[in-house]
Amino acid sequence: MSEHPTTHYRTIWISDVHLGTKGCQASALLDFLKHTESDTLYLVGDIIDGWQLKGKWFWPQSHNDVIQKILRKCRQGTRVVFVPGNHDSFARHYVQQNFGGIEVVEETEHTTADGKRLWILHGDRFDGVVQFAPWLAYVGDHLYTVALTFNMWLNSARARMGLGYWSLSQYLKQKVKNAVSYISAFEDAVMQEARKNNYDGVVCGHIHKAEIREVDGILYCNDGDWVESMTALVEHADGSLHIVTWTPPAVVREKKPKRNRLRDTVVTTPAASTPLAEPVSRTATEREENVPAHTDESDKQEPSSVIQA
User: Fold this and answer.
1) 18, 229 Cβ separation under 8 angstroms
2) Domain 7-245 belongs to what topology?
3) Are 54 and 88 contacting, i.e. CB atoms less than 8 angstroms apart?
4) I need a labelling partner for 19 at 20 to 30 A (CA). Which of 49, 53, 57, 160 fits?
């Protein structure tokens, strides 16, 4: 049973799920979707990883369950808006279409309960590598996949040692100077464009780094990802925004019972004609001194004589 109660938000934003890859934390996302409700759900790109699926098909049941859960939310009245990213750019051919109740848009605007106008887009258009060196983006994606695979092995070992989840790639992003500079440049470019278009803020994904900050009156929000950080951006009824980091309940594995070594022991029962010996009782003094129990006088034997040379 999950540790999380069901929570209702005015709006939820998720992105960079990368369904179709082994690094996708589909079970955690499904648990999040089961225990949250919202008036509007924004899917801010890279929900399905078309790049990986082109090379090798990977689609376990948990990934299918996520899609089914989102469609079920549509049927139950949640407005679902899909803003495609670079990994699911195939969906950009279907902008302004509606699939199972899901609206597909290139980008859109959201007004919070307290009146802020937020620009919603994936953010890959501000990534110079994606725009001007797509081959390098593919190489980077391959290296990132390798890092995620190693991260899975590492966290599997950590789990066996009773340690919590730790993201290697997030650690490298924070420590490598070029990665920090790239993220900072991306955030600045997005905010400048939002200011130019008279928005109060922007919500995006793409760089897998959840954050909320305000610079010179422009609010920058990134909802993170469901590969490393398992985060979402949420809006409360009063219009306030914050990042939710989802921790699915730990799976408690039942210990296998130890094998009873006596289970396979062959017990020989006495023949029916052989009477069973009556149990012999001992006094407390005899038990402490390890003295043989009393028997009938007829059972006593004379002490053996000592033979001297």
Assistant:
1) no
2) Purple Acid Phosphatase; chain A, domain 2 (3.60.21)
3) no
4) 160
